[in-house]
Amino acid sequence: MKRLLQLLSTALLVGLFFAASAAPATAANVLPPEISWEMAGPDMVRFHLHFVNPDPFEYTLPVSGGMHSQQFGVFLPDYGTIGTFNVPPIEPESFFDVFFDVPLSQLPPNPPQGSGLSAPQAPLVVCPPPMWVGNVEVFWNGPGSPVNYHNGNIGVCPGGAASCLHLLTGCAGNMTWLINNPCPPGWTVTLENEDHTAAPALLPANWTGWLCVTAAANIQVWAQCCYSVDFWCNGVKATVNVCAIACPCDVGVEQNSWGRVKNIYR
């Protein structure tokens, strides 16, 4: 009997060891990823997907998916493939990052920008740092898919003319919209038609126009105003995010097609 009890105890300990070393059952769903990008060189964009598992006990199910680029705007078709990914089971309360490096030549061109005063013979200073201005769509085989992210930046002269990004929409019906401007007083954000008149509360199908921002003369150089605009098409919401940066210009700005703002000095 003593020998039998020893064998049973040994078997139980071995079983507990393998149970402890095995991964928990994969049952949790991965959250939609946090999406961002930055320039990894003068002609290269680095995209970052940050997948998180907030569950304190369960691993996530593995997921596979892909990422597409789009022009700057809302409810637009895909332009091209950025990359595909496979996310393994993520440990409880952990994360998994995915990166893609994509040449600018493989992405949609930056949107046109409104120009202020210009003096080509004057020395030029670049502001803000260049970035790709556009949209991405991320999809995967799990709940919450797909998600879209619309992101851009623009420079503005304090006390100068408005700086504007051209915006495309692809809604087949009418759209409503709302500007979310959490910036301090002195910043003004407007949505304007192609002729720079104020956009109507109900936008027509496939509307195009300008997203503009101005900064009062007392706004400090390098201050930022990061705002968003929500659009609704048939009950579906899309949000455009833009960060405006106050540039050290005296007269005006001339903005090129890559999201750079050139400061004009006398």
Descriptive key words:
266 residues, mainly beta, Immunoglobulin-like, 1 helix, disordered N terminus
Explain the overall architecture.
- With 266 residues, the protein is mainly beta.
- The chain has a single domain (27-264), classed as Immunoglobulin-like (Sandwich).
- The chain is built from one helix and 20 strands.
- The longest helix has 20 residues, at 2-21.
- It is globular, with a radius of gyration of 25 Å.
- The relative contact order is 0.18.
- The model is unreliable at 1-5, 7-25, 115-125 and 251-266 (pLDDT under 50).
N-end to C-end Cα span: 100 Å
CATH evolutionary superfamily: Immunoglobulins
What is the subunit organization of this protein? single chain
Q: Name the structural class.
A: mainly beta
Briefly, what CATH class?
A: Mainly Beta
Number of strands: 20
What strand order characterises the main sheet? 7-5-10-11-18-17-13-15
Content of β-strand: over 45%
Shape: globular
Element order, helices and strands? HEEEEEEEEEEEEEEEEEEEE
Mean pLDDT level: 82
Number of domains: 1
Largest sheet: 8 strands, mixed
CATH topology: Immunoglobulin-like
Figure out the total of helices: 1
Q: From the coordinates shown, what is the CATH architecture?
A: Sandwich
Topology:
Elements (H helix, E strand, L loop, with lengths): L1 H20 L4 E3 L5 E8 L2 E10 L5 E2 L2 E8 L2 E2 L5 E8 L6 E10 L20 E3 L7 E7 L6 E10 L6 E7 L5 E6 L6 E7 L8 E2 L4 E8 L8 E10 L2 E11 L6 E3 L5 E4 L2
Parallel strand pairs: 1-4, 6-12, 11-18
Antiparallel strand pairs: 2-3, 3-8, 5-7, 5-10, 9-20, 10-11, 12-16, 13-15, 13-17, 14-16, 17-18, 19-20
